[in-house]
Amino acid sequence: KELFTGSLLIPTFFLGAEEVLLLARRTDLRRISLDMPDFTDVILQIDNIRHAIAIDYDPVEGYIYWTDDDVRAIRRAFLDGSGAQTLVTTEINHPDGIAVDWVARNLYWTDTGTDRIEVTRLNGTSRKILISENLDEPRAIVLNPVMGYMYWTDWGENPKIESAYLDGTERKVLVNTSLGWPNGLALDLEENKLYWGDAKTDKIEVISLDGTMRKTLIEDKLPHIFGFTLLGEYIYWTDWQRRSIERVHKKAASRDIIIDQLPDLMGLKATSVTRAEGTNPCAENNGGCSHLCFFTPQECRCACPIGLELLSDMRTCIIPEAFLVFTSRAAVHRISLGASNNDVAIPLTGVKEASALDFDVSDNRIYWTDISLKTISRAFMNGSGLEHVIEFGLDYPEGMAVDWMGKNLYWADTGTNRIEVARLDGLFRQVLVWKDLDNPRSLALDPSKGYMYWTEWGGKPKIVRAYMDGTNSIMLVDKVGRANDLTIDYKDQRLYWTDLDTSMIESSNMLGQEREIIADDLPHPFGLTQYSDFIYWTDWNLHSIERADKTNGRNRTIIQNRLDFVMDILVFHSSRQDGFNECAQNNGHCGQLCLAIPNGYRCGCASHYTLDPKTRNCSSPSSFLLFSQRSAISRMIPDDQQSPDIILPIHGLRNVKAIDYNPLDAFIYWPFTVMNIRNQSQNPEKQPHDLSIDIFSHTLYWTCEATNTINVHRLNGEQIGVVLRGDHDKPRAIVVNAERGYMYFTNMQERAPKIERAALDGTEREVLFTTGLLRPVALVIDNKLGKLFWVDADLKRIESCDLSGANRVTLQDSNILQPMGLTVLGNHLYWIDRQQQMIERVEKTNGYKRTRIQGRIAHLTGIHAIEDIDMEEFSSHPCSRDNGKCSHLCIAKGDGTPRCSCPVHLVLLQDLLTCGEPPTCSPDQFTCATGEIDCIPMAWRCDGFSECDDQSDEENCPICSATQFQCEKGQCIDAHLRCNGEVDCQDKSDESYCETICLQNHFQCANGQCILKKQQCDSFPDCIDGSDELFCDKTLFTEKIKSSDDSGPHSNAIGPVIGIILTLFVMGGMYFVCQRVVCQRYAGPNGPFPHEYVSGTPHVPLNFIAPGSSQHGTFTGISCGKSMISSMSLMGGSSGAPLYDRNHVTGASSSSSSSTKATFYPQLEWWNLRTGKPYLIRGIAPPTTPCSTDVCDSDYTTSRWKANKYYIDLNSDSDPYPPPPTPRSQYMSAEESCPPSPATERSYFHLYPPPPSPCTDSS
Predict the structure, then answer these.
(1) Which residues, in sequence order, are CB contacts of 1033 under 8 Å at separation 6+?
(2) How many Å apart are CA 711 and CA 717, to the nearest integer?
(3) CA-closest candidate to residue 821, choices 921, 701, 903, 735
(4) d(Cα 185, Cα 141) in Å, to the nearest integer?
(5) Following CA atoms 802, 804, 805, 807 in sequence, which dihedral angle do they give, to the nearest 10 degrees?
(6) For a 10 Å CB count at each end of the chain, is N or C smaller?
(7) How far apart are the first and last CA of the chain?
(8) How confident is the model at residue 1073 (pLDDT cuts 50, 70, 90)?
């Protein structure tokens, strides 16, 4: 084979190892010599490597090329790390694969974010998109410049391995069965084979280059292959979970470990440093191409980057003067008007059904509508920078035009019957025309004159003209069929259109006069445009684009044929966007929209905004209605004749059930239904139901159907807690009356619905109504009237009453089919009727003047009114300033002062401002100030030894009274316990320096203790030091002689014997019970534990709740059900509470991670459980008892190894489900990555082995 090095100089640093392994390791690149037996890795000195993924090498110039997913760039540097350059930075999303064509000097890469395969020259110029269709998750890519092929893997929903020519043509699927995550790909040019590594099937397989002869090379111990390469006789790969680089002989299948115990392994390239094998005609003078040269099995092909056109010599690329652009279903194409070349698809991703089309020549962008996605999008002419500018409130947008002077975008929507305008980026959207429109279709603008034109396809088709601000509309042309694709000849001031009913192309002057037929023998004309002296049109029957003279339709020429359903067509050229108006300069000094009109312009605002004529700026509305549909929230001003309702641009709405609004920060809040991703079903009984905002305290009250509670969060997402819950309560609809400190809610108890009132902390609860209710679904308060309104969905009735529940009145009870929401705005009461799909209103005081406000609104779910806030009145509220200095809940009292309160799981402390934990220790216990230990026996207080973590039990110790003795370390005991022969001070100081004199009938022990003489030598030690049972033989003999004279002969020998026997019997019984009963019942860390050994009661106090999970910081949503009110074991863990000792001095496990401590009053007294004295060796845990859970406890679970999105279960033989194959996976970091080998799986999940059980038989 031929050696290809070209005329380039080989850098001097190449004089080292010839065969190397190049490694991308997330934040660095490494070079490993394959010529040396120790495989030492050298870190290249390259700055700012953030997340390197793919890597390749050019042996001709000696450059390493790599992709960086974090900075979204493609970079290169020499093999020693010098000469670092950034080549590509735009339109890079997740570049997972890279490959160097060392012959043609091109660089290829795959991008799983844009779903493209692209190419540039090796210096980053002449970028071109090769493949952008039918790619899901393209990853590894390899090239065969000698044969002219490229190969790549795709690990998407339908994984596959494909091939194509190097120019992206002749695409072919090689493998699409039995694949999971084909991450690695390698070419064997000597054997003409293709190898790949699959991270899901855990195999390395091989096929011939034509896709045949598939074989498995190895399938053992391959947890997660990622990087993959081949050199000589070996295949090399990186493994994420084993943290290793390994290799296997491609024939013998023998394996070696190159590097072990190295995390964050990414791409891999085995290469020769200076040897480049093979050549093709592109190697000489770039194949004669001006830009890109691609070698294919048939020939060398020249190509141009997007924006350039290939001349007829098929070698030279030029910038075209003008070209046609047209939409065809899921693609946008371009055709040069200066070259006889085939059309080129502009590489746009995600297009479904493109319809209307226009462009902005100054910005080199195209704009199009998509009637399937219901969006208006834009992108640069090379396909980059794609973005949706209008995504909401569109139904069938079939007409669109760009105002290139005012930089505005106009569109006509047949579905909504509206003509709207916005800035080119989608901002400041305004409805211009919506009255008396009948299916508006095509749209054309003349910005220099200030007019817009459109066609209507309704009952009386026509062509209409109006000012560009939507005013002064007049009909220009009637007696016309379905006029389509209206276009303007700006030079000759003529209108052109196609008529779908008559199959003609017609023209008129700009007033609709001098009407002429340009062509009338057309099968099915549809799209139309004009340029220079010609008109261009598309024909659906002929599947073609044709051209003819614009004045008479002669000299017809076919530009392109074999085209299906071309919707719109235009000529991209600067002459089509010429002229001037006042909006072209500084937007006419308008704050939002500058709209051209004849001989001038008018400043405009987004819908519902108000223009200040002096400053030309716009102000937001202060009073309006919000109403929600299933997946949208809209705003309307009922009596505004200038603008209709508009949909707010809020992403991700699904199953919206209710809405509320905070006028202070202009945020909308809504509860939402969470879909079950696995089975696409939903359970409405597990979701939030309704919500209401207290703007003064910045809190959100909401009801939860899963827990049947009323909950409170701060508006920043911080959880406050539950304020109302009951065994039979089912609170649903809720409204907060923060001005008076109350909340009103419906209680949907079975067969007995109620409307209740309570203070904002759930106290002062009272039932307002229990009769005349079936299913009240919505409540609203009017503070100005002092009224409560509600609507009953089953009774189909709207009622009101005073805020105290008095003066109940029915306002409406006829022709209401399915009422869902209720609100008050101004003098009117509004409600929505879901079945009739409309919003209605009546006067709120008497129910008169019922009026339909809006109709034909599907899936209505909620409505809410916003009125302007009186800031002086707001500031006077006692809770508006720093929440009334309350730590949790602030409630306004009748005298205008704040009252602080707490959720049900907390209590108000003595300062009457702060909420804290309820008292958890019994009266006989001392409560530690902080730390994991909560309660200790009161006897341990001030005993000279600190049991509390914060040593608070030894602080502020009292001075003993006159009737007490103070031990050396501060402990106080009764004075009569001093020198009584028993140690009562913890430090034993009460029995020091004693000179005890025993009474005559007492025996003095060696330690000074006094006992009765008859207790001496009775076979039971009564002295602490046991001295009363010493020398008993002599003593007993003496006593027997002394007593024989008084008592007569008898024997005392049987007493000690019986005592010894009883002692042994009791000790043996205790041992049997512990070993055979207690220890067998305790089955280990996860097994049962006898309840009588648990130091805590089996019930929970009524004011105690388990802490729930909440989201803090930015308010991203509140969930209820299992995700909010989490279950918690009463013992605080799976193993139950341990036996009482100084390491577990509370009723709850001290290892609980909950911030809310759950400590319960003990069922047994502490000193009955602690049989011995305190341990005197400080800093060392007391020895475990045979049945202590201190040793048997284990909280080592896999939960600590959960990533944010995935489980990694290496103890299972199956694959991790679902561990992401993407290199952006959570578990790829060094701190959380997988174990280096399966042999260490146990230590991976358990930082320390569990201690041996002390309850084994051998104990």
Answers:
(1) none
(2) 12
(3) 735
(4) 7
(5) -40
(6) N
(7) 76
(8) low
Burial grade of 678 (CB within 10 A; 0-12, 13-18, 19 or more): exposed
Tokens of 146: 């000698």
pLDDT band at 1035 (very low <50, low <70, confident <90, very high): low
Buried b (16+ CB within 10 A) or exposed e, 16-43: ebebbbbbbbbebbbbbbbeeeebebee
Strands (E), 447-503: 451-456, 462-467, 474-477, 483-489, 494-499
Pick from 1196, 1190, 1197, 949: which is nearest to 1093 by CA?
A: 1190
How many of the other CB atoms lie within 10 Å of CB of 836? Answer: 18
Q: Would the pLDDT of 1087 be above 60?
A: no
CA dist 235 and 245 (Å) reads: 11
CA 327 to chain centre: 35
**Sheet-wide strand order for 809-812:** 776-782, 787-792, 797-802, 809-812
Measuring CA to CA, how many Å separate 895 from each of 260, 396, 937? Answer: 74, 58, 45
Which domains occur in the chain, in start order?
19-310 (2.120.10.30), 338-607 (2.120.10.30), 926-978 (no CATH)
Residue 871, burial from CB neighbour count under 10 angstroms (0-12, 13-18, 19+): exposed
Do 1084 and 1253 form a contact (C-beta atoms < 8 A)? yes
> pTM (2 decimals)?
0.67
CA distance 904 to 890: 14
Q: Rounded to an integer, what distance in angstroms lies between the CA atom of residue 1191 and that of residue 1138?
A: 9
Write the burial class of residue 460 (CB in 10 Å: 0-12 exposed, 13-18 middle, 19+ buried): exposed
The per-residue pLDDT for range 384-430, each reduced to its tens digit, is 889 999 999 999 999 999 999 999 999 999 999 999 999 999 999 99
What whole-number distance in Å separates Cα of residue 1225 and Cα of residue 1215? 15
Q: How many CB atoms lie within 10 A of CB 1195?
A: 15
Query: Closest by alpha carbon to 531, among 499, 559, 563?
Result: 559
Cβ distance 1140 to 1095 under 8 Å? yes
| Contact residues for 101 (Cβ-Cβ < 8 A; gap 6+) | 107, 108, 143, 145, 166
Phi, then psi, of 11 in degrees rounded to 5: -55, 155
Please tell me whether residue 1081 adopts helix, strand or coil conformation: helix
pLDDT per residue as tens digits for the range 702-742: 999 999 999 999 999 999 999 999 989 999 999 999 999 99
Q: Report the share of the chain in percent with pLDDT over 90.
A: 58
Q: What is the share, in percent, of the chain residues with pLDDT greater than 70?
A: 79
Alpha-carbon distance of 709 to 726, in angstroms, equals: 8
Question: How many residues are given for the chain?
Answer: 1259
Among the listed residues 1156, 1237, 738, 1146, the one whose alpha carbon sits nearest the alpha carbon of residue 947: 1146
Which helix (H) or strand (E) segment is 777 a member of?
strand 776-782
pLDDT in the model for residue 1135? 35
Token pair for 733: 């609809």
Q: How many CA atoms lie within 13 A of 805 on its CB side?
A: 16
Which residues are within 8 A (CB) of 944 and not within 5 positions of it... i.e. 6 or more apart? 954, 967, 968, 969, 970, 971, 986, 987
Answer for the pair 635, 623: CB distance below 8 angstroms, yes or no.
no
Other CB atoms within a 10 A radius of the CB of residue 577 amount to 18
d(CA 450, CA 592): 18
CA distance 1027 to 1023: 6
- Concatenate the DSSP letters of all residues of 38-96 into one string: T--EEE---S----EEEEEEETTTTEEEEEETTTTEEEEEETTS-S-EEEE-TT-S-EE
